[in-house]
Design brief:
The chain has a domain of 112 residues: Sandwich (Immunoglobulin-like). It contains 1 helix and 11 strands, in the order αβββββββββββ. The strands form 2 sheets. Strands 1, 2, 3, 5, 7, 10 and 11 form a 7-stranded mixed β-sheet that branches. The protein has a 4-stranded antiparallel β-sheet with strand order 6-4-8-9, with no helix packed on it. Strand 8 and strand 9 form a beta hairpin.
Length: 162
């Protein structure tokens, strides 16, 4: 009598579970890299050349915003465009920029705010990186000094944002 043995083997459940366990760390390790681009936020800093007029009834500000990439997550040459600058829980009647609302990493955007509801140590900046989705972050503005000339009037060639 001859017996036949099959040369085809099916993996056991234990072998399948071990294989799946090895693949989980690989998948988990790649997830943060994919999410890093979505949470990339440049740093906005009010330059020492920024000034404010906030003691009178009509509050105005000229904020020179320096854009930096402290997290090294913006590809070289991508533009960062400011869409809005407002005090938290406040309002601005008119916002304008000069020379443009966009710059690259390391550049400066000058924002003129007229009819500010309140002067505060923080401003909320709405921005886009490389034309992507609108994002918001907070910018410290406690280093903005009082202007000797009030109100601060934007130049005639400033570009309105609202």
């Amino acid at each position: 009598m001859t017996s036949q043995t099959s040369s085809t083997r099916t993996p056991s459940r234990r072998t399948l579970v071990k294989g799946a366990a090895w693949s989980v760390p690989v998948i988990a390790a790649t997830a943060p890299a994919a999410l890093a681009g979505a949470s990339c936020i440049p740093v906005f800093t009010a330059a020492p050349t920024s000034v404010k007029c906030c003691s009178g009834p009509y509050k105005t500000m000229k904020v020179d915003i320096i854009v930096t990439d402290a997290n090294n997550c913006i590809a070289g040459g991508e533009s960062i465009c400011i869409e809005s600058v407002t005090p938290p829980n406040g309002s601005v009647e008119k916002t304008s920029v000069k020379p443009s609302q966009c710059t690259n990493e390391g550049g400066t955007i000058t924002v003129y705010l007229e009819g500010v509801s309140n002067c505060t140590v923080n401003m909320v900046v709405g921005f886009r990186v490389a034309g992507g989705p609108l994002q918001f972050t907070t910018m410290k503005s406690d280093n903005i000094s009082d202007s000797a000339i009030c109100p601060i009037v934007p130049p005639a060639d400033a570009i309105p944002l609202n």
